[in-house]
Each structure stands twice: as C-alpha cells, then as structure tokens.
Write the structure tokens for this entry.
Amino acid sequence: MKISFNLLKDNLSWDSVIYQLNSDVLTRHVLVNGNVDDINIAFSYCEITATGSITNQNNDVLGSFCILT
C-alpha cells in the first residue's frame, strides 16, 4: 500500500510504499525521512477516512499521513 506523509516542520511531504501498517513501520519512515527531533512519536489512525495524525510525547501535532492504496 502507498502512504503519503506530511510533516508541518519544513513543510515536508513524501510518499512511501509499505507492506504492513503498524507504528514500527510508520515510525521508521518518519524518523528516516522526516527530520524529527524526538523519537517519542505516536500515531492515531481512522479506518473510515484512511487518515492519521503524527504527534510527539506532548501531544503536539507533527503532521499527518494517509493511505493512497
């Protein structure tokens, strides 16, 4: 499946192909491509809209992601 990532910092976005949707895979993509300072990131996901948010340990929104299929 294809995932589109959008981070607020530096207005950064990219698409990636992943084979399993879980927090470990999402974290790896954000840490490698996203220029994120904090490794303590969390993801929330809505199956109805196929979108999710990326937050830090203080619940500040870092960005979002969506499944493009």
Remarks:
- The CA atoms of residues 8 and 24 lie 21 Å apart.
- The longest helix spans residues 23-33.
- The mean pLDDT is 93.
- The longest strand covers residues 61-67.
